Amino acid sequence: MTLAPARAEPTDAEIGEYLLAARGRQWIAGAVGDERDPWSLLLRGGDRAEQAHRARQHRDVYRSPAGCWVVTAYDRCAELLGDPRMGLWYPDPAPGRRSAYELAQPLLSHLLSLDRAFMCLDPAEYRNLTAWTDPVLGAEPVEHHVDRLTALCRAELARLPERFDLIRDYAQPAAAAALAELIELPVPHRPTLAAVSAAAAVALDAVLCPPQRPVALGLRSAVETAHEILGRERDTAAVPPRVLTGVAGVEMAAQLTANVLLALLRDPAGHDRVRAEPQRIPALVEQALCDDPPVRVEHRVALADVPVAGQVIAAGSEVVLWVEAANPGRGAGAGNGRVRPPLTVDAGLYTRCVAPFARVVATAAVTAAVSSPYPVRPDGEPLRRLRSPVTAAHTRIPVAVTAIPSTEG
After folding, report:
1. Is 67 exposed, middle or buried (0-12, 13-18, 19+ CB in 10 A)?
2. 56, 125, 211, 345, 395 from 297: Cα distances, Å
3. Which residue of 35, 55, 180, 309 has the fewest C-beta atoms within 10 A of its own C-beta?
């Protein structure tokens, strides 16, 4: 794993100009054609379930007006997820050494410096999973960390007022605190890491959906700050996993935590069962990774011409593997008696590398919340980020503490 090379960087004004134009192109793409492209509509903030359903009725592989190829069929997605010709960066590395603003159509990852967050490496560099997980989780089994991270999450809960936001005040800070604890980050740097991870929360979506200028600049700054506080290791091999986890893994863990807890809040009987039997929580986390995952779309760039379903995806083309649309649901078969396992983050590239961190943090955070002597209840409607095609990220989940009724007397 190597650091991204130095290059000329676009100015803030150039970044804002390009992002505004890109957002406009995506918006227009959802308004053209007789059958309005479901992917373009999702980019505009369209209803997620409706567009995923429409995508299943659409063509398996097609060129979207939004300027990318879209793959919606399970078998095609599964095939391309494992295809080494599907990468994350330009087929010719030369454009990546130039300012993104100099290119006619730069990758958003390039413009937003996400290559500096190790989200654009060659696919082969993500294959050695332990090289990515050991610098964060160590060589011990992940179960080794659950108890101490649960205690840490309980401490996060204890400082909160009676009414708080489950994602902003608990899940995101708890995930950042867990990373700091696991890598033994010096205490003075821990608030900075929490701020970095919060500013980088849009990174997973930003590879496909241009954020507004202030958010984009905050993301670029967060990536550089992550290097400053996490790149002090003498062991340079530890830097990429820790920066990637700080930028992408913390948000994945936070959204996974929120998805599990929100499902339990909507099912009081299920919440009571899990409270009585907390050993169920790891299975709930795994189920959420299948049914309500923190990553629902995988972005790729064709590194060579790739024939798919009688068409050729040309080298350099961006490809959307719409996993959410491809997954048929629990227990669905392939039409010939086979049960197809859902495609999850474990089939991704950098998502696969931070998934073990997300699992252990979500398990600890859910355990702490469910076992609290003062469980929470919904205190308003949850909100998701409007244009969040990759993660469907929650931005607001208001809750309130409720005391357990006394059984004395």
Report:
1. middle
2. 14, 21, 17, 9, 19
3. 35
Q: Quote the pTM value.
A: 0.93
CB 41 within 8 A of CB 32: no
Per-residue pLDDT tens digits for 78-124: 999 999 999 999 999 899 989 888 888 899 999 999 999 999 999 99
The burial class, CB within 10 Å (0-12 / 13-18 / 19+), for 33 is exposed
Q: Taking the CB of residue 198, how many other CB atoms lie within 10 A of it?
A: 17
Reading the block at residue 121, the tokens are 């490496």
Q: What letter represents residue 28's amino acid?
A: I
- Those residues whose C-beta lies under 8 Å from the C-beta of residue 304, and which sit 6 or more positions away, are 85, 91, 315
Would you state the structure tokens that stand for residue 54, as one six-digit string? 């429409």
Give the residue carrying structure tokens 């454009």. 95
Give dist(CA 220, CA 210) in Å, integer: 13
